[in-house]
């Protein structure tokens, strides 16, 4: 669908590079963000700055949301009137990392009350993946609706079908529970090794060729911790939000998860002690100061 008009709400660290890829692929992208500077940046890259969320909704064949959380997704769709403005033929794709139970309820409300369809398509791969179009996109929803979204989503990365609506959001939270927990335990191991006197680069080199190898040793420690830049572009608060979603899922399926509980507790402590805008990779520095 080369002349699909894509509405894009939420032009932050992830949304902006995703919207830019869609513009570069030849689509008309009409975007909106609460931050006026983001709208100027979108326009400077060939997108169209929308006046508000309803104006973006009015023109969209596919309406993508890349917002911080379920509260804001619901506020935009229901309270700010987007649901009333989206045409019944259009499709809403929530690519934010939202709460699965709330996504399921929202999809039902949109269908029953507004005759609008919603699928969930959260992503992993970070800002780097958003820029390169190499995100892993976990897609939940009705087959026909997902098929319609495919030409747009394929520009952003690799789609993995997860099942019914909200299953993408569930899997995304579980992925981030893993990502966060292994970043923390990697950091503990690295600080133990440093205090014992082993060189950081030597540890990473050895572990990356050994059984302890993981995303945190291959990517996060070398790129954001050793460099002391702590600038991955994914906020610690957003990571903690996802971990809490995963923890809540465990409660809902009645599974005891002591390691998850401890990990959430430690990330919560870091969130209280660090700046509200801290990058999630700052957990590595924080864990070495305890
Ligand atoms: P961000 O905070 O950088 O961007 C969110 C954007 O939403 C901001 O530009 C903000 O101004 C805008 N916004 C907030 N409320 C709004 C409203 N009511 N109306 C319009 N715009 C509004 O966050 P991000 O890092 O881009 O993350 C977005 C989503 O993607 C989150 O759900 C996050 O958990 C998820 N995610 C982030 C990453 C990452 O590496 N940053 C990776 C995967 C998934």
TrEMBL record:
Top-rank lineage group of the source organism: Bacteria
Pfam assignment, any one: NAD_binding_2
Domain 6-phosphogluconate dehydrogenase NADP-binding: 5-160
Active-site residues, record numbering mapped to chain: 172
GO molecular function terms listed in the Swiss-Prot or TrEMBL record: NAD binding; NADP binding; oxidoreductase activity, acting on the CH-OH group of donors, NAD or NADP as acceptor
A single BP term in Gene Ontology: organic acid catabolic process
PANTHER family for the chain: 3-HYDROXYISOBUTYRATE DEHYDROGENASE, MITOCHONDRIAL, 3-HYDROXYISOBUTYRATE DEHYDROGENASE-RELATED
Name used for this protein in its record: 3-hydroxyisobutyrate dehydrogenase-related protein
Protein's organism: Gordonia otitidis (strain DSM 44809 / CCUG 52243 / JCM 12355 / NBRC 100426 / IFM 10032)
